[in-house]
Write a structure and sequence with these properties.
transmembrane helix; mainly alpha; Energy-coupling factor transporter transmembrane component T; flat
Length: 239
């Protein structure tokens, strides 16, 4: 038994989930979250909150919880002024925002899965290659674009161009010239590089893809799937 040293706090280790479990949670939650009642929405949010906590994504939970509560209250407040066009518009956007925020929890957990492991798992599920190959390229493309965007913004700051929201609204043409044009040009180059790298690494090979991590359902996966089945059963009965 490992003893806790003085001054050292005990913390709960995050569980390792199979990529199929993460994908299933996102798909099922995304399907039900736009058709369920307010009670079902809160139930799904609590489930995804606990799921994200067990998966180790704990730093963002307070912020997402505050955003969910605030958006939920604002939605109810805005719906009380349906006669106002402006408030009705805000209520419309708040309705979708309050249902999108819980999905961020499942999406964050899924996004932390290594692309190679996710592709190997989906290949084991016999996903068509017409979907698998574009997905593999896209999973590597989005993080690279995020890094490129940060690099372009840093260069803009070095040249004395502050990329704030106010300046973007004030000078949309300059934003298009300094930010979007370089990003589009870099995107074309990056897409070609990633596609060639994927082909070089054997993405088109019909053989089963290997993975450093053993792909199998663990006890934690069975627990999450059982909890998801219970939540779905409650949603179907309650509506």
């Amino acid at each position: 038994m490992k003893l806790v040293e003085p001054g050292e706090t005990m913390r709960m280790e995050s569980i390792k989930l199979d990529a199929r479990t993460k994908t299933l949670v996102v798909l099922v939650s995304g399907f039900f979250i736009f058709f369920t009642s307010d009670f079902g929405l809160i139930l799904l949010f609590l489930f995804l909150l606990g799921y994200s906590y067990l998966a180790g994504e704990r730093k963002v939970l307070p912020y997402i919880t505050i955003a969910f509560i605030f958006t939920n209250f604002f939605q109810r407040f805005a719906f009380g002024y349906e006669d106002s066009v402006i408030m009705a518009t805000f209520a419309f956007f708040a309705y979708f925002a309050v249902r999108t925020i819980p999905l961020l929890l499942g999406g964050i957990v899924l996004s932390k899965t290594p692309p190679g492991e996710l592709i190997a798992t989906l290949q084991k599920c016999y996903m068509p290659r017409a979907i698998l190959i574009p997905l593999a390229v896209g999973l590597r493309f989005l993080p690279t674009i995020r890094q490129e965007t940060g690099a372009i913004l840093d260069v803009m700051r070095l040249r004395g161009i502050s990329p704030t929201v106010w300046n973007i609204w004030r000078h949309p043409l300059l934003t298009f010239e300094y930010l979007l044009v370089p990003l589009v040009i870099r995107s074309l180059t990056i897409a070609d590089d990633i596609s060639m790298a994927a082909v070089t690494r054997g993405i088109e090979n019909p053989a089963a893809r290997s993975s450093l991590r053993e792909i199998k359902f663990s006890t934690a996966d069975r627990f999450v799937c059982l909890a998801l089945v219970i939540v779905v059963a409650v949603l179907l009965n309650v509506g």
